[in-house]
Amino acid sequence: MTMFYLLSTLRATPPTRTPTYGNLLDESIYKGVDSVIGFYDAILNSKGNEWSNKFWYYTAEKGQTIYDAAINAKNDVYWTFPWGYWGIDSIVLKGSTSDTLHPARYGS
Amino acid sequence: MKRSSVLAVLILTSLVVGIVIAANIHEKPSIDVERAKEIVRDFLNDLEANVVYKRSESLNHRDYIVLESKNAEFYVNANTGVIERITFKDAMRNSSIVRLSEDEAKKRAEDFVKKFGGLSPNMKLVEAKLLDHGVGKEYQFIWVETIFGIEMPNRIVISVNPNTGQVMSYMGILRQVEVQLKPKVSKEEAMEMATKQFDLKKIMHSNARLSVEYPEKGVQRLVWIVEVEGEPENGIMQGGLVAVDAVSGEVILVSPYM
Description:
The complex is a heterodimer of chains A (108) and B (258).
Chain A: E1 3-5, E2 17-18, E3 22-23, H1 24-30, E4 35-39, H2 45-61, H3 66-78, E5 91-95
Parallel strand pairs in A: 1-4
Antiparallel strand pairs in A: 2-3, 4-5
Helix pairs in contact in A: 2-3
Chain B: H1 3-26, H2 33-44, E1 52-59, E2 62-69, E3 72-77, E4 83-88, H3 102-113, E5 123-132, E6 137-147, E7 150-160, E8 167-173, H4 187-195, E9 203-216, E10 219-233, E11 236-245, E12 251-256
Antiparallel strand pairs in B: 1-2, 2-3, 3-4, 4-8, 5-6, 6-7, 7-8, 9-10, 10-11, 11-12
């Protein structure tokens, strides 16, 4: 399974659609990526890192589906300093999101 | 009562309050896992419910015991025993269709909050929106207590399934304010300090608000939360957030846009 997630802000209309890259989320699925995650609004470095750490914890360590892990990580972000989502609640998922991710192991 | 007696009473009261505040900050978890399980069973109104311990989490604003029952996850405050967060996993399903209006969803959220004592008088609805996550949607409502224009730690965040009307997640935090609400750093000074943190060609937008935050474990601070947005470069956002201690003027956090 291939997964791509975009932890950056490309504010346009909509933010993930730029003249250069097209709609990155749809484009990625079209190119064969199984699951894509992005953010429509501007996100902060600190909150983005927090979300990322929690997302991988929930999906790779706790075995949650991509969707559940992404939303739970989003909820976690609210109550870390400073209070608020700061764009993380604009998360968008496309493709297969009911799958779980398993960390790659050496030699497998 | 003599003036000296009044003074003595005031000093004594201040000392007691100071001791209580200090105790609150440094108190150790007083709720064990078995007690937390009972609290969840009480909430579910099912004394036989199978409640499973999942993990413990330590956050700046409190320690939690995380438990699971009936496919829902409960965060029990390890000091007070209050359930401060719930995620209803089943309610997250079938959320692509919007059947409820925003007002109907808000009513569901407000009804749910009543289980925890309802909204306090100073709580204001600061956000109500329908979020589209591509494969699912949610109505999100956020209430924050504001006193003298300063955001308190007291807040409620609720998500409602726009199709089924079920509450998907709840977060409710109530804390005593342990800091003086008088900033020594002005809004203008905070914004000037924040702007200096970024190399911006042109400032498009900036704003600042005062908030009682927990930048460190167990420590409240009155903080200026400043957002500075510069002119985008090659379609990339410039600027970000700067947190400035409103008393000492210390820059606590610089978090650029990604």
